[in-house]
Amino acid sequence: MVSNYLFSVVRAPVFIGLICLVIAACGGGSEGGSTPSTPSVNDTTAPVLTLSGEASITHELGTVFTDPGWTVTDNVDSSLSVLVEGEVDSDVAGEYTLTYTVADSAGNTASAERTVTVESSTPALVVFKTGATDSAWDDGIGAYDAGISYGTCVGDGGASCPNISWALSADSDRGNVLQVSHSSAGADTGLFFQASTPIDASAYAGGNIVFDLQVISGDSNFSIKVDCVYPCTSGAKSLGSHGATGWETVTVAVNDLVAGGLDLSKISTGLVIWATQQTNTIFQLDNIRWEMGDGTQTGTGTGTGTVTNATSPLSYDGYSLVWNDEFNGSTLNSSNWTHEIGDGCNNNLCGWGNNELEYYRSENSTVADGLLTITAKQENFGGRDYTSSRLKTQGKQFFTYGRVDIRAKLPKGQGIWPALWMLGESITTVSWPASGELDIMEMIGGTINREKTTHGTIHYSNAAGGREYTGGSTTVENGLLADAFHVFSIDWNTTSITWSLDGVAFHSQQITSSDRTEFHENFFFLFNVAVGGEWPGSPNADTQFPQQMQVDYIRVFQLD
User: Does the model's pTM come out above 0.85?
Assistant: First the structure.
């Protein structure tokens, strides 16, 4: 496009064709009209084509490009045509070449080239490179580990974390890279790069987190997240298999993490990464960085797609349905369920062992329209400020192994803690945690990401009689878990327990080790909505009551 003697390349790719200019307007040639002079038979002198500005220039990514222009002079012709060929896409970083050509009426030609480098003046946000963590992440490299009650070990190579370690390793082509090792325990753990002061990464909206990865041994499936000052986080994002055959560059869209709840204005970790199976995997990392995008932030934190209700089949190949409750009718089936009443104090477990704030009542659960509904209310009863319900199948319906599908729609709000879970039938004789606990679904309300995330966990007793626990989590892509019905499942067999959300597996734990024998015994089910507690914290002024968990069905299948 020609305007006021200059051509401009707009944000979309522009192909520049023939451009005719009056030389006088460009500052060259003789005065006069636009009709070329009669060529001289002795004219063997080429025009002089001079670029305005430098022949090599740098242009800011994402802004409109305007060519600095040129001038042409000729000893005979007063006006000449200039052909400009080339493309500059100012939305895509890279190097572009523009070629300028002019010919006079005698056929003498001149040409020039300009190189335009489109790049961002904001450099990549480096996390780890050439064997070192960038100074922005001044707390350095650390890890969280379920083996120390989700405490962290920072700057010690994992010496104080029982299930993960890291160290620099020499690579013949790259120099020092970071090598990370998961233990054989299958414990929930992950490596992170942390800043002591939150970083505003808003400029990287629309960009990517990029890193190089290779697997030395073990499973090649990985998951990542980014934190933005607890409890703000992007939630876990499964990346699938990478690096199994050597170094591979992995790219994660920043806006995908924003859609999971990430607040770019207060980033606290440059990357959190773990092998999804978290068992016997050794991998290496290099060149971790955030790269600029176009600055456009998409996603509201709840996802941008359509929220749909999930369901599950009535049968599976090789399995038989051995028990189910579809919650038809108008009352709870007492052949299946018993209400637990109180605040735990009658069991010498005030607050149910978690400093919960509710008093459980049978009146807070109903069966109607094919749904079991548990309602948490803000009301004074039994010395507590909140009431809810807690149901169990202990002594009535209990199982060892099988596939379990529970279709439910969850509550939400700060301090709200719904759970669909199991305990070992042996709890009355061996107590907890020796009985074992298997959490099919837990959700803690309070932030967008928390209310998009379901957690699956096992609790058990170690050799010393202390509690161990480990698990995994996943997030829904669109909406919150309170916006639609979802199917929370486990597939429990003689070697492992695998958790799924809406038919998609997201975590697995082995149960073959000598400290996990609990998970080869009978377990019963519990459904409840807690209010408050050590994990979610207490309700606040933004928490709306009543809150409800609705359960459509529970189905248990076992191998034929």
Answer: no
